[in-house]
Amino acid sequence: MTSRPNKQKLPEKQAALEIRGLGRIFHSDLGSTVRALQDIDLTVCSGEFLTLVGATGCGKTTLLNLIAGFETPDEGFIRLSDNLQFGENIAYVFQHYTLFPWRTVSRNVGFAMEMHGISRRRRKQKTIELLSKVGLTGFENAYAHELSGGMRQRAAIAQALAMQPKLLLMDEPFGAVDDSTRTELQQMITELWQENHTTIIFVTHNIDEAIVLGSRVLVLSERPGRIAHEYKIDLPRPRNRLAKEFTNLFIEIRTALSGQLD
Asked: CA-based, 20 to 30 A from 121: which of 15, 17, 92, 216?
């Protein structure tokens, strides 16, 4: 499978967001500047599962933060589809869980619904449903410190899904768990994506994970981050890591990350 130009569009589906000429520059107190991102051109289709890989410091998290509206671009623009609104139906799952330590699991999951004025009865019903989907039935009244790392991330994902986001941004959410738990979480998020058709942009350092999850994989260059290579993943789900096609993709993406692919 070959790399594709990063400006290629997917016109057969509605675009969830478009990015053109995006750049981000950070300024230090000493007057120096660091260009984190440059000339990012990207179209993400509605319902797509996009994974991003790249070296540490290449701007992957910065790109997510710009899409989320946490930061403002210095160059270019991000255009969201009409049905996407910051603070309404865009959710973010961070590298480390963001649960309130003084709230139980169920109250953490129901927090966003509570802030939006959803009734207690509906919150309880939705929370039970979500905890079942992420495999946390029976832990409704537990606190974060009573959960394993994988369970905390399951709760954080349920928390993010509570408001039925149309765009889900995920920044290395499985990076701190063991391999077995990581595989379980990958399967879980794939099943949730297939069920809900949520648009997902997922940052990872793990090439294997990028291929297992993504319908498309983007490789970002070293800083300043640019989209260096793009791979459309046509492998059937669930994906077989031992298949020749999977292995070939892994090697090609690893080579691209090493800067050896033209």
From this structure: 92
**CB of 21 closer than 8 Å to CB of 7:** no
Residue 187's Cβ-side half-sphere holds a number of Cα atoms within 13 Å equal to: 10
CB 4 within 8 A of CB 68: no
d(CA 203, CA 133): 22
| Token pair belonging to 122 | 């509906």
| Distance set, CA 152 to CA 63, 93, 139, 149 (Å) | 25, 11, 11, 5
Closest CA to 106 of 70, 85, 137: 137
What digits encode the pLDDT tens for the residues 45-79? 999 999 999 988 899 999 999 999 999 999 999 99
What is the reported pTM? 0.90
pLDDT digits (tens, 9 = 90+) for 213-254: 999 999 999 999 999 999 999 999 999 999 999 999 999 999
Decide: 198 and 165 in contact? Cβ < 8 Å. Answer: yes
Alpha carbon distance 92, 90 (integer Å): 7
CA distances from 159 to 35, 88, 101, 133, 198 (A): 33, 14, 14, 12, 15
